[in-house]
Amino acid sequence: MDWNNLDIRELKKRRIWKLKFIDARLYFVSIFVGLLTGMVAVPYHYLLQLFFDIRKAFFDSHPHWYFHLLLFPILWGILIFVSWLVKKMPLITGGGIPQTRGVINGRVDYKNPLLQLIAKFSGGILSLSAGLSLGREGPCVQIGSYIGYLVSKWGRVLSGERKQLLAAGAGAGLAAAFAAPLASSLLVIESIERFDAPKTAITTLLAGVVAGGIASIIFPINPYFKIDAIAPSMPMLEQFKVLLLLAVVISVFAKLYSWFTLWSKNIYPRIKQPAHIKLLYLLIIAYTISLLEVDLTGGGEHFLIMQAMDGYKPILWITAMMLIHLVFTTFSFSSGLPGGNFIPTLVTGGLFGQIIALLLVKFGYIAEANISYIMLISMVGFLVAVVRTPLTGIVLITEITGHLEVFYPSIIVGGLTYYFTELLQIKPFNVVLYDEMISQPPYSQQKRSSLFVEIMHGSYFDGKKTEELTLPERCFIKNIRRDRKTLSPQGETLIPGDQVEIEIDAQDIEKLYEPLISLANIY
């Protein structure tokens, strides 16, 4: 059919109504993605908790020395096996948030998504179960993106809609990890998709609610709910001084933390030892910490919750535990084994906040009952400083603890910390990891790539002829997908629902992604 011979206004009316049904289908599919992600990511969380409990029971029982001689080589073999998996499938390394962003941007493609999903699932469980200080949230995010990718492939979803399902799966993964659907949607917007398209926000929230619901069924008792958050009884001006102090010291500490983490990550590959020997050293550290304080391993979340529930400890002891956790986390993450840094970052921020709170108690500014309150706010501030996701941090802590008391103070500390980290030029950690990833072959050798955009009603592209459009240099429309047909762009008028493939230089994707998407969207 020759679309150009039809009345464009009548055609657009029909297309808009049709798009409403297409959007409804996409929202339904996103719910399905959330369901599948919950059915995979929640068991991932459950198995991590199960193996942690088994490991904790083993070390707490103080077994005979010959049991250690049996367990240690088994754990070493497990780490060597996971390292081999990462070598075979490099995309399963680390947390997975940079990889997920790369797939959404079109920089990265999952060649064998089902196999990589299985490897990420098993590799993450084995790494954390061996005692390494890694988080479950990053792998859950990437697991969700794998599921979104698979559903888009199997369901023959248009390329322009695929990123919505990828984002929905990623958000559902975080929701499954924390049972926090609202924070998961914000993380996708702030750190992964980095573009607040309404359709992406809706699909992510729908998928997150479903996955979070499954997580709430499997984990009906959220341990964070047991933490009290009692605000100090002091005048508003005095409270603001305390919050300002928190923001300043957290920002400075975050600068040192970011520097040390990146230094460790860069120095680890330069250590002239075989991979299995470096893993042996790492396991020795993990095993020693397990013998002394097993709750500090596996990310340290259990140790943090225990401290928040009974936070009046000697300052020097807490400082020592925090520094051990910080160094162990950087070494664990530098290994490249599957596991995120989100939870370890929260733990470090919480313990640092406990140190500040203990000092404030010592000098009579707050009471002992206020220690956990300061810890929760510090977790927000430190997460904002390191990851640069203020909305996610504020909503996440409020959502998982259920304490509205920390919401407004977290906004103040989060906002101030964001400003101070800008002054200190702390680059967001996931952005650093993403830049490192795309600077490696084969991504740095890519010449041309394609970006798929969907035309929305009322956008700049809507109703424009392709010849009228002025695109950035070396960008051009390759083809148009309309009603499952591929059309040549010459002489075509863009209408709502068109899936437009724009070919651009691969090295320009990060700079042009948001501007090009914005031309096709409306807010």
TrEMBL record:
It is found in: Membrane. The chain crosses the membrane at residues 21-45, 65-86, 165-189, 201-221, 242-263, 275-294, 315-336, 342-361, 373-397. One of its GO terms (cellular component) is plasma membrane. It is a multi-pass membrane protein. Coiled coil: none annotated. Residues 453-515 form the RCK C-terminal domain. Keywords: Chloride, Ion transport, Membrane, Transmembrane, Transmembrane helix, Transport. GO terms for biological process: potassium ion transport. Pfam families: TrkA_C, Voltage_CLC. InterPro entries: Cl-channel_core (IPR014743), ClC (IPR001807), RCK_C (IPR006037), RCK_C_sf (IPR036721). GO terms for molecular function: monoatomic cation transmembrane transporter activity; voltage-gated chloride channel activity. SUPFAM superfamilies: Clc chloride channel, TrkA C-terminal domain-like. This is H+/Cl-antiporter ClcA. It comes from Parabacteroides chinchillae.
